[in-house]
């Protein structure tokens, strides 16, 4: 299979199908993500973007096809699920920080309980990442006391402290005020530069153009078009893509 | 794990990997849970069986000397052998435990049926006054609600029964009317005017009931129309109109036919028609009937002489026929002494034993059980507004609540009413100010605003908790046992003591309460689901 | 209809005023006239009965109205006149109502104060009390309460007061440092704060140990076990029962809530229906048929046909709970308990519990009542906690999952801490309910506050005296419940503006 040949492939999806009741949300998705690649997923609302990336860490269950992460197949086996969730981090649109824990506790919870690192190590790594995202001084505050942009950066730090192989972003900037978007995008750009493997659903075209290695356009549960940013934006192949781009760029 | 073959769905199909399958884990966890539960219940059952064994075979006697679990409830068919003070169906100590339970259940039903509408009235009224612009009104309502919500219902019941009723209300012979309205409160209970339907007025009764229901439906439909079209459809007036119309039709249809039989005299009685009674008693007393009261007062007629001379009447329960007859006696100044039998069996036993000169009951009762004696025809109106009068030692006529019933009802209504008031207040307040202002901006009148905007939205919030308050009222009526009202639970408890069996009666009681609760809460779920659907 | 509408007008217009208040509709006119007549009659009666109090009230009423109306006409409102206008006299109806109510309140208060103070006797000597109260008209004999104060509060524990003092000492000892440590941010996350928290959590258990004791009397152990059934009573018993019920029901309530909420994959339908079919078939052969043969009464037939319920239950279970046994069992338990009145559970505890227990387990009446109240409380607590669980946004679960947290960690570290915090006010509310419900144990013969009060009327000294003890316990219940409710409302506000 493709994955074996490349050796570099870190996420492999083969003919992934998913239904909500009778509604066919994902229709045969094939995708191979190699290590260090940054993929941006675009598509109109309801096209199944979120559903797709949420299948990769089993927040949603796919019913047909295979998803492999680092050679582990996502099955009903709880060990595989745990294994994959350790390796795949996720950043949500609504941040989903734990409101009853301090920033530091938010970040160290999973390292301590999942990675089984000791508390001191975890806190050290957490502080390192907080420094990286630029808010080390907020460590002892509660999420409610932070701005949206700061919260999202904490969420990124929380994900990264777990040292995942792949990071999923589901519209990380959509819930932010315009002035806060860039502070989050900057962090993401840095991560991309450092070679993290990222799959990101976003409406930030600038980010997609400059940072992505590949752009995927989804519509109606299918991958309609997949290309490098240059080709994708300047020379879209499909009518649907053209329409979408014209709508977006006219704004 | 490195072995990845697209044709296999797992990373290995061994048994261990099946064991880690999340679906299998779910089933295993449930099987373990079921086994643990079964073990627990088996343990309970084993203890129970051994403990029941120690209680002896009599617990499950079949009546033929054998003993078996399937006869667990056979004892319920035995004679209850205890009195029940209040009954809406005939009941006698020789009736079965089942019958006793039924009497109790009907008593629970009675207090709930009165309690629920009264609670609603009190709750809605106080809920609105809680929002009154008048500071005194608001403060008094708030005080009532807080006082009743922060003290136990049981304490309230005791205070109502032992303080308010026993200490503050007058004795029965001193009871005065309430502001001139013939409602009498005494420490024995409450007497009030009531509409009595005579047997030949039944058509009128059913027509009135039908008119009421149809009127309500029409009112509802009209209010929907009004809601949709904005026309004022005058629902309440149409409702009243239908009610009055059905009353008139009923009155005309049932005709003025003189009545069916409702009194009986023993064979050989001197009484042939009603008018025979007065001369008979007059002859026995030796003075004109009009003078009896005066004679009693000035001492020329002794109480003993009256005792001997007066008319003796037997009756069963508290029937319309009785009221009608007594009214007639009173109109004719005939002194009488009446005894009420708790069941028709006892009634006929007393009548046959010659305890009374006249027996009065509903026609159907005579049809069933009269063996000797003859039935007299009596002029009888279809319907009377029966007004309670204090005669002898008791109030005759009208409706009445015993002190126990009245105390329980009052306690339940005041207690639940306080909670309902809070619900209503919260419901009204939940309709946001914005809605009110929007309605005003649209130029709706104050009445339209309440009817079209506030009420429909508030009701959505109010109805679910309101229904659970009704359920609470029904469940709380089981506190009747504290003040001696024979409700379902109180009768159950008596059966436990009387029969020496605890398990079966308590199980029956719990199952009954559970059935009521579950039916009401499934209705509530259905309602909530429907409302939620509409909101989409 | 109101002064409000008049405000919009330039000048006070008598015509508008009358139209709004009286002649707008015939009903309003009738109502206003009737109310005025009633007010006249009512105030007149009061004037005759209590002239000294009523006349000043009426004068004050008239004067404030004139003051307010003048301010209204001349547009010279002060805050006081505005308040009067808004709250007391904003229409004729309300002005009349205000008068009637104030006179009624005065009548009631005068009556009550006369009864409770002026005509009352505070002597504990029944003879004196009788003399004093019968000389006046109607008066309270508070001696019945004061003489029984210990009984009402702690019942026979008055011989074991050191246990109560030890408990109170513990609570005070914990409260004083708490006032400092939980208030200041300096101690956030400090060890001492954690210790204190744990001590608070342990305090019900320690107090229970103080009050009940363990071991034989006579040794050096001052907290030896006592006969709780004989000694515990009064307010103390009510408090113990409600605290025990809420504390003991807590773990059970959490488990029930989680169970009812659980989304684990259910038993597949073929397994449910298959088992049900087999079981039914087996029982029909071994149970129904033999029993049908000997059946005589309707009851016997019903008994014999009971196995036919199994398929129905299976259907209900598969359709209602999608095969989830835990959700099914927890729901059934919760709904069964909530569906019956507490009193039936209490009687079951007293009469039936013994039947289910093995030889040698013989809890006394208090123990049995505790079991009943705990089971009762658990069902309601479970529903409260479930409410909290439902309030947790799905994102919290997803974040925990995406971080790879185990189910156990997810619930203990993320979901439950948040859910429980949300339901604290509801739990306090439930505690108030339990505290009030403990009065029901009077019906199964325990000496709780209500029962002690009830029995005073059969004491030689205070035969038939009921009102005073009842008023006393009414006040006690009210003060305790109202204080807790007030505190809970404050807590709710704090939590509302808090961390989240
Ligand atoms: N739990 C669910 N049950 C049923 N249908 C769902 C569910 N979740 C999503 N869907 C449907 O699946 C489709 C894809 O949803 P998805 O959230 O993946 O869209 P999306 O591409 O992320 O859109 P957006 O840009 O608005 O986030 C939508 O039509 C949605 O209505
Ligand atoms: Mg999405």
Task: Tell me what you see in this structure.
The complex is a heterotrimer of chains A (251), B (536) and C (500). In chain A, 42% of the residues lie in helices and 25% in strands. By secondary structure, chain A is an alpha/beta fold. In chain A, the strands form two sheets. A six-stranded mixed beta sheet of chain A has the order 6-7-8-3-9-10, with helices on both faces. Chain A has a four-stranded antiparallel beta sheet with strand order 2-1-4-5. In chain A, strand 7, helix 7 (178-193) and strand 8 (197-201) form a beta-alpha-beta unit. In chain A, helix 4 (103-115) packs across helix 5 (119-133). Chain A is globular, with a radius of gyration of 18 Å. Chain B has 536 residues and is α+β, with helices and mostly antiparallel strands. Chain B folds into four domains: 1-55, no CATH class; 97-165 and 403-535, MetI-like fold; 195-253; 261-383, Periplasmic binding protein-like II (D-Maltodextrin-Binding Protein, domain 2), CATH 3.40.190.10. Chain B has helices spanning 15-19, 22-55, 97-129, 135-149, 153-168, 202-229, 235-253, 277-285, 292-298, 303-309, 320-331, 344-352, 363-369, 403-430, 433-441, 446-476, 488-499, 503-535; strands at 177-178, 181-186, 189-192, 194-197, 261-265, 311-316, 336-341, 358-360, 374-377, 383-386, 389-391, 394-396, 399-402. Residues 1-12 of chain B have low confidence and may be disordered. By secondary structure, chain C is mostly helical. Residues 1-10 of chain C have low confidence and may be disordered. At the A-B interface, strand 5 and helix 3 of A face helix 2 of B. Bound molecules: adenosine-5'-triphosphate and magnesium ion. Residues 49-50, 170-171 of chain A line the site of magnesium ion.
């Amino acid at each position: 299979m493709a994955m074996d040949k490349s050796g570099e492939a870190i996420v492999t999806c083969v003919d992934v199908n998913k239904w909500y009741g009778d509604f066919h949300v994902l229709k045969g998705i094939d995708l191979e993500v190699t290590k260090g690649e940054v993929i941006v997923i675009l598509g109109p609302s309801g096209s199944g973007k979120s559903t797709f990336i949420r299948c990769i860490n089993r927040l949603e269950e796919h019913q047909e096809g295979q998803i492999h992460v680092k050679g582990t197949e996502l099955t009903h086996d709880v060990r595989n699920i745990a294994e994959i969730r350790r390796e795949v981090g996720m950043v949500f649109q609504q941040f989903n920080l734990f409101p009853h824990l301090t920033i530091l506790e938010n970040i160290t919870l999973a390292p301590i309980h999942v990675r089984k690192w000791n508390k001191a190590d975890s806190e050290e790594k957490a502080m390192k990442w907080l420094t990286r995202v630029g808010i080390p001084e907020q460590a002892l505050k509660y999420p409610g006391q932070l701005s949206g942009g700061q919260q999202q950066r904490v969420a990124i730090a929380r994900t990264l402290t777990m040292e995942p192989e792949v990071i999923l972003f589901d519209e990380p900037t959509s819930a932010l005020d315009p002035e806060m978007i860039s502070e989050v995008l900057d962090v993401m750009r840095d991560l991309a530069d450092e070679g993290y493997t990222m799959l990101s659903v976003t409406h930030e075209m600038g980010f997609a153009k400059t940072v992505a290695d590949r752009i995927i356009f989804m519509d109606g549960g299918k991958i309609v078009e997949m290309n490098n940013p240059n080709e994708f934006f300047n020379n879209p192949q499909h009518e649907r893509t053209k329409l979408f781009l014209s709508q977006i760029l006219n704004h | 794990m490195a072995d990845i073959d697209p044709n296999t769905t797992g990373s290995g199909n061994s048994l261990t990997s099946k064991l880690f399958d999340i679906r299998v884990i779910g089933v295993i966890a449930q099987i373990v849970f079921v086994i643990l539960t079964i073990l627990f219940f088996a343990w309970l059952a084993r203890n129970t069986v051994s403990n029941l064994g120690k209680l002896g075979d009599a617990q499950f006697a079949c009546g033929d000397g054998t003993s078996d679990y399937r006869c667990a409830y056979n004892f319920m068919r035995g004679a209850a052998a205890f009195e029940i003070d209040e009954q809406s169906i005939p009941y006698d100590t020789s009736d079965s435990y089942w019958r006793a339970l039924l009497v109790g259940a009907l008593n629970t039903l009675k207090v709930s049926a009165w309690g629920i509408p009264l609670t609603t009235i009190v709750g809605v009224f106080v809920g609105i006054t809680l929002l009154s612009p008048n500071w005194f009104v608001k403060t008094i309502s708030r005080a009532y609600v807080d006082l009743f919500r922060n003290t136990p219902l049981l304490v309230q019941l005791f205070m109502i029964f032992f303080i308010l009723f026993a200490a503050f209300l007058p004795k029965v012979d001193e009871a005065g009317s309430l502001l001139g309205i013939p409602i009498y409160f005494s420490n024995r209970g409450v007497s009030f005017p009531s509409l009595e339907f005579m047997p030949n007025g039944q058509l009128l009764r059913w027509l009135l009931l039908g008119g009421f229901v149809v009127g309500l439906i029409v009112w509802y439909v009209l209010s929907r129309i009004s809601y949709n079209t904005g026309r004022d459809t005058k629902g309440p007036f149409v409702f009243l109109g239908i009610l009055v119309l059905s009353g008139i039709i009923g009155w005309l249809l049932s005709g003025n036919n003189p009545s069916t039989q409702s009194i009986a005299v023993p064979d050989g009685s001197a009484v042939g028609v009603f008018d025979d009674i007065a001369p008979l008693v007059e002859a026995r007393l030796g003075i004109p009937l009009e003078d009896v009261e005066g004679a009693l007062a000035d001492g020329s007629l002794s109480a003993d002489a009256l005792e001997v001379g007066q008319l003796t009447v037997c009756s069963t329960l508290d029937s319309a026929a009785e009221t009608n007859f007594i009214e007639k006696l009173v109109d004719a100044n005939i002194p009488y002494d009446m005894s009420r039998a708790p069941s028709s069996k006892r009634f006929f036993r007393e009548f046959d034993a010659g305890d009374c000169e006249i027996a009065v009951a509903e026609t159907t009762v005579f049809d069933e059980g009269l063996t000797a004696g003859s039935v007299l025809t009596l002029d009888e109106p279809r319907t009377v507004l029966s007004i309670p009068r204090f005669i002898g030692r008791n109030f005759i006529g009208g409706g009445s609540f015993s002190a126990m019933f009245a105390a329980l009802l009052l306690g339940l209504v005041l207690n639940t009413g306080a909670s309902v008031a809070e619900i209503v207040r919260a419901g009204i307040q939940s309709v946001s100010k914005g809605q009110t202002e929007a309605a005003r901006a649209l130029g709706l009148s104050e009445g339209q605003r309440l009817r079209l905007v506030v009420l429909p939205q508030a009701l959505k919030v109010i109805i679910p908790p309101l229904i659970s308050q009704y359920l609470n009222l029904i469940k709380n009526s089981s506190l009747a046992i504290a003040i001696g009202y024979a409700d379902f639970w109180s009768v159950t408890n008596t059966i436990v003591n009387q029969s020496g069996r605890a398990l079966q009666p308590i199980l029956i009681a719990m199952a009954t309460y559970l059935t009521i609760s579950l039916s009401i809460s499934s209705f509530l779920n259905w309602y909530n689901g429907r409302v939620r659907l509409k909101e989409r | 209809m109101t002064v409000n509408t008049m405000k919009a007008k330039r000048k006070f217009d008598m015509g508008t005023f009358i139209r709004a208040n009286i002649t707008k509709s015939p009903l309003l006119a009738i109502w206003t006239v009737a109310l005025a007549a009633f007010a006249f009659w009512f105030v007149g009666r009061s004037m005759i009965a209590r002239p000294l109090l009523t006349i000043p009230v009426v004068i004050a009423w008239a004067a404030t109205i004139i003051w307010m109306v003048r301010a209204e006409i001349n547009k010279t409102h002060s805050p006081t006149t505005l308040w009067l206008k808004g709250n007391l006299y904003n229409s004729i109806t309300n002005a009349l109502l205000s008068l009637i109510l104030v006179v009624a309140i005065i009548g009631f208060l005068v009556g009550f104060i006369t009864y409770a103070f002026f005509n009352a006797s505070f002597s504990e000597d029944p003879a004196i009390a009788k003399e004093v109260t019968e000389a006046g008209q109607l008066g309270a004999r508070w001696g019945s309460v004061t003489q029984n104060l210990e009984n009402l509060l702690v019942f026979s524990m008055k011989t074991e007061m050191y246990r109560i003092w030890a408990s109170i000492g513990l609570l005070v000892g914990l409260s004083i440092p708490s006032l400092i440590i939980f208030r200041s941010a300096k101690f956030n996350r400090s060890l001492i704060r954690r210790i204190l928290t744990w001590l608070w959590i342990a305090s019900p258990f320690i107090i229970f140990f103080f009050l009940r004791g363990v071991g034989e009397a006579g040794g050096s152990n001052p907290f030896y076990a006592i006969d709780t059934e004989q000694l515990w009573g009064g307010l103390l018993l009510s408090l113990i029962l409600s605290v025990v019920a809420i504390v003991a029901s807590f773990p059970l309530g959490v488990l029930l809530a989680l169970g009812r909420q659980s989304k684990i994959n259910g038993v597949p339908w073929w397994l449910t229906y298959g088992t049900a079919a087999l079981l039914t078939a087996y029982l029909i052969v071994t149970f129904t048929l033999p029993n049908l043969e000997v059946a005589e009464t309707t009851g016997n037939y019903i008994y014999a046909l009971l196995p036919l319920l199994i398929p129905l239950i299976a259907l209900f279970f598969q359709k209602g709970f999608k095969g989830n046994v835990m959700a099914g069992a927890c729901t059934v338990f919760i709904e069964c308990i909530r569906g019956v009145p507490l009193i039936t559970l209490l009687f079951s505890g007293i009469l039936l519990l013994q039947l289910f227990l093995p030889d040698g387990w013989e809890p006394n009446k208090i123990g049995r009542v505790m079991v009943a109240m705990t089971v009762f409380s658990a069902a309601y607590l479970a529903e409260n906690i479930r409410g909290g669980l439902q309030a947790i946004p799905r994102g919290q679960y997803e974040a925990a999952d995406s971080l790879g947290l185990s189910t156990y960690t997810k619930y203990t570290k993320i979901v439950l801490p948040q859910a429980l915090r949300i339901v604290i006010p509801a739990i306090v509310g439930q505690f108030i309910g339990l505290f009030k419900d403990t009065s029901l144990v009077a019906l199964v013969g325990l000496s709780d506050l209500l029962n002690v009060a009830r029995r005073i009327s059969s004491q030689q000294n205070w035969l038939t005296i009921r009102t005073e003890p009842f008023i006393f316990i009414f006040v006690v219940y009210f003060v305790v419940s109202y204080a807790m409710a007030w505190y809970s409302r404050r807590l709710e506000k704090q939590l509302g503006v808090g961390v989240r």
